[in-house]
Design goal:
The protein is α/β, with parallel strands linked by helices. The chain has 22 helices and 16 strands. A hairpin with a 5-residue loop joins β3 and β4.
Length: about 525
């Protein structure tokens, strides 16, 4: 018989009814919000994969579902795998848990997955269903699993970010449609908050500003905004937005945080184990800010965080940078994807080849429905990006909120928004042209939170220049890269990772001399924590 061990009750609790356990929240096909026991009841008719798939294709939300059936354990994850589970085969049956320590308790010796280390250090996540520990497997985004009691496994995908067609409507009609969808998204968000305080991590960019404006337009005054780092242009814009909207605003100055020996803090180690999931980089970006807000009681205990993931991406901001194909090819290859996404540090040709081979193996196992292809960009790369990088790296950064006991909502990942943008023609998606026009006209200008020439890289010309600069950065001497990295480090990552680097050196770990991102040091430090756990 399978063994199920569900332990993490941070922010979102596991709730059970009959043979079903669920963590997270669900919107049904009418857009009604369900959490806890009500959400579980949505799945009570399920008696197998087909019945479950039918329901999953009609709902939305962030959840993981576990159903105990006579033949085995049925597991389903939402399209970003907001609450990953892990499993391994033991004595012919399956052990399933949301906590890696549960596996350590059942087996004393596990091996580090060396093959996955190059991709982890260069991109911040492990590809596919592998982890940094051999033989411990993790659930994937939009996946249905049936782990049979006899040790067999069935699995399938039920969601893809692929266009079934491209809209031929006029731009004016599409703009009106987007305005309507955003209004409906706002209504669903407000209902889901259930009167609790909304906390918006407000940057100088567009996505979080849009969320703040949506809340203001809905008259939701129980809203607090915050930003963090050291004072910079983004924090100035953030403050101006909050003041214009009449929301309380906090700034957590990272240059004043005492980081001495923070890597030895048991609470920080617990966070890394929770958010890292032996497969993702534990994000530092908001950890110290949320910790500060909680410890100083600046927000209510039942607050709900609403980050801006990931309006700009589905709106098209990355099409030219990473999804665009060369010379009108329909598909990117493993080499192209490796070069565009796995670049936290310069890779040897050997490690580049390893990553390329592992990407191509991922696509070798990739099945998808028929979709409308574009000669301008590779839709399958975009789907891969959302299932891999965005699921395990970007969305996973929000694990900091449940760790400190708070829930989150992702309104800009709303299913109707995703459907709208994946059908939008390339010319209206690239550089997020339509998205920017609508939110400027409908939200920012009326609320006096559009700052024209002071905005950060919002014009297509500025984005084109940034893309060109990124392509040519390999020509820049490393010393200049290092100085530029530090000068633009408004989040004080050089301080945090400096502590990690010293810790690694003290342990005799070789630290790369050349890096393109401080994230490499975080990933290396965390991978060594895992190694230590495996040998202790």
């Amino acid at each position: 018989m399978n063994r199920i061990d569900l332990r993490f009750q941070h922010g979102f609790e596991w709730v059970s009814s009959g043979n079903i356990a669920l963590k997270g929240y669900v919107f049904d096909k009418e857009g009604e919000f369900f959490a806890a026991q009500e959400a579980v009841r949505l799945f009570h008719p399920v008696d197998g994969i087909k019945a479950l798939e039918k329901i999953l294709k009609q709902v939305d939300g962030v959840f993981t579902l576990v159903i105990d059936l006579p033949e085995g354990t049925l597991i389903a994850t939402d399209p970003i795998c907001g609450f990953p589970l892990f499993y391994t085969k033991k004595n012919g049956a399956w052990m399933i848990s949301d906590h890696v320590d549960a596996f350590k308790e059942q087996k004393s010796h596990w091996e580090f997955n060396e093959a996955a280390l190059p991709e982890f250090l260069s991109a911040g996540f492990v590809l596919g269903n592998e982890t940094l520990v051999r033989d411990i497997i993790r659930t994937q985004a939009a996946e249905i699993l049936c782990l049979h009691h006899n040790g067999n496994k069935e699995q399938k995908q039920y969601y893809w970010f692929l266009p079934d067609h491209f809209s031929n409507q006029k731009k004016s009609v599409l703009k009106q449609e987007l305005k309507s969808i955003l209004q409906n998204t706002t209504n669903r968000l407000i209902k889901s908050l259930e009167g609790k305080t909304a906390v918006v991590p407000l940057s100088g960019g567009y996505d979080s500003r849009l969320i703040a404006c949506m809340l203001k337009n809905a008259g939701y005054e129980q809203t607090i905004c915050f930003t963090y780092g050291r004072p910079n242009k983004e924090s100035e814009i953030s403050k101006r937005v909050a003041e214009a909207l009449g929301f309380k605003w906090f700034f957590v100055d990272y240059s004043k945080i005492n980081t001495n020996d923070f890597t030895a803090d048991p609470g920080f180690i617990d966070y890394c184990n929770y958010a890292g999931n032996i497969s993702s980089m534990p994000y530092l970006q908001e950890y110290f800010a949320v910790k500060h807000l909680k410890e100083n009681k600046l927000i209510p205990e039942n607050s709900i965080f609403i980050p801006g993931h990931t309006g700009d991406y589905i709106a098209g901001s990355y099409l030219e940078k990473t999804i665009r194909t060369k010379r009108n090819r329909l598909h990117n290859d493993g080499k192209t994807i490796a070069a565009r996404y796995f670049n936290f540090l310069p890779l040897s040709s050997h490690h580049s080849q390893i990553i390329k081979d592992r990407i191509e193996r991922w696509f070798g196992n990739y099945t998808h429905p028929v979709f409308e292809a574009s000669s301008n960009y590779d839709a399958t790369t975009e789907d891969w990006d959302l299932k891999e990088k965005f699921s395990k790296f970007i969305f996973n950064s929000s694990q900091v909120f449940p760790f400190f006991g708070y829930q989150f909502r992702f309104p800009l990942w709303d299913a109707k928004l995703r459907t709208f943008f994946r059908r939008l023609p390339f010319e209206l998606r690239k550089y997020k042209v339509l998205y920017d026009e609508v939110i400027q006209e409908e939200y920012f200008i009326p609320a006096n939170v559009f700052f024209h020439q002071e905005e950060l890289n919002v014009k297509p010309s500025a984005l084109r220049f940034k893309n060109l600069r990124d392509k040519l950065k390999f020509l820049v001497p490393h010393a200049l890269k290092r100085n530029r990295l530090k000068n633009r480090d408004y989040l004080c990552y050089h301080v945090f990772t400096g502590e990690m680097k010293r810790s690694l050196i003290d342990k005799g770990v070789k630290v790369p001399a050349r890096i393109n991102s401080y994230n490499t040091l975080i990933c290396l430090w965390y991978s060594e924590i895992i190694r230590q756990k495996l040998t202790s």
